[in-house]
Sequence to fold (375 residues):
Amino acid sequence: QMKPRCCDYWSALLVLHCCLLTVAAESREADSHRPPNIVVFLVDDYDKYETSVYGGKVLTPNLDRLAGQGLRLTSFYSAPGCVPARKQLLLGRYPGRVHTNGNTGVTGKGGLSDSELALAEALKGAGYRTAMLGKWHLGYAEEKFLPVNQGFDSWFGLPYSNDMMPPWVQTRVPLWLYEGTKRIEHPVNQDTLTTRYTERAVKFLERDHDKPFFLYLAYNMPHMPVRTADRFRGRSRAGLYGDVIQTIDWSVGEVMKTLKRTGRDKNTLVIFTSDNGPWLNPPSRMLQKGNLLWHAGSPGPLSGHKGTLLEGGVRVPCILRWPGRIEAGQTSAEMAATLDLYATLVQAGGGSLPSHKIDGYDLRPFLFGDTNESP
Fold:
């Protein structure tokens, strides 16, 4: 039996090495063009300057970690209130362009018109699985207005803000927790809302997904009245409001751990932001039944608050993470807005933008480092 010559051995090894490099390169190329999974965390009435990720005293280790793994924006803008912020985020349009034919709160009969193409609808059209957990606030009086008829495969949450019940709002309309189109709980146990949303998020992420997914986790907190589970009370250095912030931080951590455990964290674009700034001037109706002004947040270095167009009302946190696409450990003061997330996510997911005018920009060239300037 002839022994292989040494040069043949090394030649074969070189060919094998080149083949492996080619396969790896093709795999990276395929990953770079594969639509990402998308997770959007939206908090409500959030005071970013209370949190350690933005220099505050409330410890937010999971948000700190998320920022270290991606891009933290310090000049990111939303709208001054709940409904306009959600119109911007989910439709990519200035709120004045979006007519709901009535308000979308507890006594409202309005909702999104059929002419609108909501973010979940656009991504679903591109082949995404979609799920929503939390606060909607874009119409509930008719079933067609609910999230499951606006592009989401599933929804578990509240139709509007968690204060829209006595004694904070004088109404006889009960606040219900929804599952899809069904009302499943009244009165709502608000102490466990955040933890239940988190449990549902983990279960959704643990499923076998044959398609990319979009998870929209819209917390009701820390909108007043602030509530959290027993195990989180008294743990922060900022009272109940701080405890609620740390609950949200825990929730983000649970989602991120699940993404990693299921092997999906590398091709998932994660975004954390808020609808508006803290509610530092709540109406007198809110300062009853144990609510304190401190429960709305605290004054930071910005002027204004929720309900105003000053910086404190509309300048909100934003962290974006996408390993391999968004460079880790960045902080930027370049301007961007919730308005821009619609165009960015739809086009990152391979979807089609609506024929009507949208007002946001595609941020991907800026996020990916192709340019240093935000559009």
In short: Confidence is low (pLDDT under 50) at residues 22-31. The first helix runs from residue 6 to 33.
